[in-house]
Amino acid sequence: MAEKKTTKKETAVKAAEPKKAPAKKTVAAKKATLVLNAENVGFKAGDVYQALAAAEKALSIKEIAKAANISEEETLLGMGWLFKEGKIIQAEDKIVLA
Hints:
This protein is mostly helical. The protein contains four helices and two strands, in the order ααααββ. The protein has a two-stranded antiparallel sheet with strand order 1-2. Helix 2 (38-55) packs across helix 4. The longest helix is centred in the middle third of the chain and has 18 residues, at 38-55.
């Protein structure tokens, strides 16, 4: 086979073409897994208790989760622990320290 020779003009055009950005890969975010053991649930209960104590008023589940910087599932775990111990009570649609 014969090689095709490129001229200076062709190489100049190739050099002037903008380089294409590499295609972006989309990566699905991993969902955090929740570890269920007595120690972890106890820590979440502490987070919920501290959030309620700092607020000094009744809070909803979403408000507790936001204040404690934990997920709603973790909030519910901690609340279950605290309900069992009698540390929190339900006041209308919100939760307050007992």
